[in-house]
Amino acid sequence: MDAQTPAVLVLPWPVGPDEVTGLCAGVRALLEGGGGERAVVCDVGGLGPPGLAAVDLLARLELAARRAGGRIRLRGAGPPLHALLDLVGLRFQVEGQPEQGEPALGVEEAVVTGDPAV
Fold first, then answer.
1. In this protein, which residues make up the domain named MlaB-like STAS (predicted)?
2. Which phi and psi (to 5°) does residue 56 adopt?
């Protein structure tokens, strides 16, 4: 893994309460051992149907990452998980989606001639 490639953590399912602590420690260890990008990619494709247990797990992982000076990024999150995270007010960076405020790839901003430069 080079300095530009974030670590990947594949989340198992089901995750018991005992395993959450270990996963949080794993996120902290990956961030402390990494050099470049301060992010851990969490592959959530195997989490199964989204529910409050998945929301709790992701919130705890994000908190652990932030305490270690980083963030988590979701990979493989389907529309039902996106909808549930939006419903509870949690925002995560998702692979394949532009960051908030960033234009989507391949989209160029239009320029109206005659507008003064900012």
1. 11-90
2. -60, -45
Given a contact cutoff of 8 angstroms between Cβ atoms, the answer to whether 41 and 9 are in contact is: yes
Q: How many CA atoms lie within 13 A of 7 on its CB side?
A: 20
- Structural domain boundaries of the chain? 7-94
- At 63 the pLDDT is 95
pTM: 0.75
**Which whole number is the average pLDDT over 18-37?**
85
Question: What six digits make up the tokens of 85?
Answer: 């995270």
Distance CA(91)–CA(71), nearest Å, equals: 11
Distance between CA atoms of 72 and 26, rounded to whole angstroms?
Answer: 12
Q: Name the superfamily (CATH) of residues 7-94.
A: STAS domain (3.30.750.24)
